[in-house]
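Supplementary notes for students who missed Thursday's class. We covered one full example, reproduced here. Read the sequence, then the structure, then the short commentary at the end.
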Amino acid sequence: MKSKSKKLNKKFTLRSFSEARGYSVVEIVIYVALFAILSITVTNSLLVMVKAFSATAVEADFLTNANVMERMTREIRKATEVNVVSSSDIQLTSANSAEFKLLNGNLQLIENSTLTGNLNAPNIIVSSLNFTLITTPVGKAIKIQISVTDTKDKNGRTESFYDTVSLRGKY
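Structure (token representation):
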């Protein structure tokens, strides 16, 4: 019986401090500090990526408006005659009549007396649109200036696009 009690006592005796297993307070503080540094680094990287994505989306919107400028240039180049030119409205005569006009911050395309729709994206505001008729002894040209603002841009930048287009057959 004594031998059994000795065995039990050995099992349930407290270990000395040097034999204790687990983490000390210093180790836990170091691990928490490392976790905090890694968490801050990852969070900061995510914030930088979100800002970069937002800036890229704004640039893509501005480039989409450059496609609008290309559409206007193509229509003007196809035109055989310019009917009306005002600072924000132009009517063109070609196989299909076309009109570009600025109305309430939107650049509208009217083809064959039917509103095709707004050429600018919903988040793009056209702040100015100017058409200037250039007449020379040799021919006619149209100078286009368009300024746009993206409502998603936190910096409130305005981009301007310029082009000069000779009328077809008027070189």
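Commentary. The chain has one domain: 32-166. Residues 32-166 form one domain. If anything here is unclear, bring it to office hours.
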